[in-house]
């Protein structure tokens, strides 16, 4: 029986999230798989930052739902095997407004809508829609922004192959404190270094040098710096 109440059980909430994910899966397999991964990556980053169980759950669930607005982006744009032109980019960017529109219909999301709205903000204040800066951006949104980029760079896209680990590491480091929250980047670097230990990982000499410089900073997470 449907209850019109704020008191959803965790199981009921997950059923609603699963319905959204099924819709995304039938729309576009890449976007579905990307969203699942972003949820997992963001949750692992939150664990690395020693956040609470609730914050880890928020990162996982909103990671899954962060691209739900892409349900309204035409497949010809979503799956285009080449760069998008300006008009197509405009249609693609609309997905963030659509995500806010869809998720704000779910009244249990109310508490987290500030996170959903801030997914495209940048740490240096040059993002959108509100140009929020630094810690004015909700922490989960700062984590999700890094997790989203991390997965986009480490997975094959219709128009290019996954980027080498060295490239991903360098991009995260160069965005640290500019596009991205420094602590969130550090949490992602720690994850990336774990992935480098997998047998198929290509670890170049220049990547080892990058790690030598940046790893000690990342590994000092999270206690010495406030979030
Ligand atoms: Fe995404």
- Give the CA-based shape: globular
CATH superfamily annotation: Hypothetical protein af1432
Number of H/I helices: 10
**Rg measurement, Å:** 18 Å
Q: Could you give the order of the helices and strands?
A: HHHHHHHHHH
The largest pleated sheet is described as: none
What's the total count of β strands?
0
CATH class: Mainly Alpha
Low-confidence segments: 1-5
- The helix fraction, in percent, is 55-70%
CATH architecture level-2 label: Orthogonal Bundle
Hetero ligands: fe (ii) ion
Q: Give the mean pLDDT.
A: 89
Strand content: under 5%
CATH topology: Hypothetical protein af1432
Quick rundown:
The chain has ten helices and no strands. It has helices at residues 10-27, 29-48, 53-65, 75-78, 86-104, 113-117, 139-154, 165-175, 182-196, 205-219. The model is unreliable at 1-5 (pLDDT under 50).
Write the layout of secondary structure elements.
Layout lengths: L9 H18 L1 H20 L4 H13 L9 H4 L7 H19 L8 H5 L21 H16 L10 H11 L6 H15 L8 H15 L8
Bound molecules: fe (ii) ion (FE2).
What does this 3D model show about the protein?
Helix content is 60%, strand content 0%. The chain has ten helices and no strands. The chain starts with 9 loop residues before the first helix and ends in an 8-residue tail after the last helix. The protein has one domain: Hypothetical protein af1432 (Orthogonal Bundle), CATH 1.10.3210.10. By secondary structure, it is an all-alpha fold. The longest helix is centred in the first third of the chain and has 20 residues. Bound molecules: fe (ii) ion (FE2). The site of fe (ii) ion has 5 residues, from helix 2.
């Amino acid at each position: 029986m449907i209850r019109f109440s704020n008191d959803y059980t965790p199981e009921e909430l997950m059923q609603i999230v699963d319905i959204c994910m099924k819709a995304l899966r039938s729309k576009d397999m890449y976007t579905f798989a990307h969203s699942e991964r972003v949820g997992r990556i963001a949750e692992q980053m939150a664990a690395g930052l020693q956040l609470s169980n609730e914050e880890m759950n928020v990162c996982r669930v909103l990671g899954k739902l962060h691209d739900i607005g892409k349900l309204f982006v035409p497949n010809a744009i979503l799956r285009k095997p080449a760069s998008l032109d300006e008009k197509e980019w405009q249609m693609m960017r609309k997905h963030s407004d659509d995500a806010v529109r869809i998720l704000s219909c779910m009244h249990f999301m109310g508490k987290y809508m500030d996170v959903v709205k801030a997914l495209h903000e940048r740490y240096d204040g040059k993002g959108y829609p509100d140009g929020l800066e630094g810690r004015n951006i909700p922490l989960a949104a700062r984590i999700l922004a890094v997790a989203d980029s991390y997965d986009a760079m480490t997975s094959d896209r219709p128009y290019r192959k996954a980027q080498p680990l060295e490239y991903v590491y360098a991009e995260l480091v160069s965005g640290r404190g500019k596009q991205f929250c420094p602590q969130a980047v550090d949490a992602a670097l720690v994850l990336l270094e774990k992935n480098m230990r997998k047998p198929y990982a290509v670890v170049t000499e220049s990547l080892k040098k990058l790690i030598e410089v940046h790893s000690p900073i990342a590994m000092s997470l999270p206690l010495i710096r406030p979030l």
